[in-house]
Amino acid sequence: MATPDRELLSRTARNAVRALMSDLALGAIGEYWENEHFTQNLDTTPGGGGARKQLFDFYAASVDWTDEDHVTRALKVFESMLRRLDRESRRYGGDGLPADRVAELREAFARDGCRLDDGLRLHTARVARLTVHVEALTEASGIHAELERVRRFGAEYPDDAIGAAKQLIEATAKLVLLKRNLPVDERQDLPALIKQAQQALHLHPAALPPARDGAGPDNADSIKRILGALTSAAIGVAELRNRYGTGHGRLAAPTGLGPRHARFAVGTASTWCELMLDTLADPDAPWRKAAETTPSENNTLTTST
Fold it and tell me: Exposed/middle/buried for 1, CB within 10 Å: 0-12, 13-18, 19+?
């Protein structure tokens, strides 16, 4: 029997925010949910309390609490609500949200790996946020979907994005080898895996025959130079991950990383992965003709670096 997906934000944390709704204007509750593109789910039965808490329930019922994108947007809703409650208290002579309520909220969110800072901003857990399950990616469509997910979240979680970019290169290389009926050595390091996958598709510059007059673009010297640079770039993503990305039990994000680093790593990985997947799927790719004439290729690929 399949195991249901785990909720990423517990009912305890959600209820801690819900408990404050009696002090927030009815229109503001709807506004903040709508700003993050949530709508009311009127098929749900709201919990007890007044109209404000029930309105909160109708919107909260439209959130898929197991979905990263939904939860990320819901946390933005909660942050906006908490900051408005704090501002309104101070506007009318108060001291902001009571310290005991803030402590309760902080503890509830901390259990789910979220941090509520002194400015009432919510910071989500970073560890494994963009983890890619390489063994589950057995089709090109799955890799394309993961690339899109990493592009969406990469700017917000740059170290995770670097780790995920490396994992997508690994997943793509393994998929190519499997589709070519070539063995996959789980002990092999990524540079060797990259080289073997490129050789399998005749995309490694060292394996291409010399350019000839009238030959197609695949053997052109310019293509060889690009492939050589792309091979080095893909290996560079793996090295970058080893130094700055997730995957080594790091408890805190490395300093200095920003969205531009994430876009650079993910863009590099995307270019390499998409070239490999496009070539694998191309019915006219040179590797297909070579495979027809050299059936012993499976035994001749080298993994030396």
Answer: exposed
Helix (H) / strand (E) containing 243: helix 221-244
Q: What is the dihedral of CA 238, 243, 246, 252, to 10 degrees?
A: -170
pTM of the model: 0.55
Query: What residue has token string 């876009």?
Result: 263
In terms of phi and psi (left: phi > 0; alpha: psi -120 to 50; beta: otherwise), the region of 123 is beta
Average pLDDT by stretches of 10, the chain with 305 residues = 62 96 95 96 93 97 90 94 96 92 93 88 64 76 86 76 89 94 89 94 78 66 90 92 58 64 91 95 87 53 46
Residue 273's alpha-carbon distances to 147, 174, 234, 285, in angstroms, are 9, 11, 9, 16
List the structure tokens of 132: 């890619």
Query: Element (H or E) spanning 123, and its range?
Result: strand 122-123
Contact 113, 124 (CB under 8 A): yes
* Interatomic CA distance for residues 301 and 206, integer angstroms: 12
Axis crossing angle, helix 11-18 with helix 68-91, rounded to the nearest 10: 30
Cβ neighbours of 184 (radius 10 Å)? 14
Q: Where are the domains of the chain?
A: 11-123, 134-299
Bridge partners of 224?
none
User: Whole-angstrom Cα distance, residue 63 to residue 58?
Assistant: 10
Question: Read out DSSP for 61-87?
Answer: TT--TT-HHHHHHHHHHHHHHHHHHHH
* Interatomic CA distance for residues 230 and 133, integer angstroms: 24
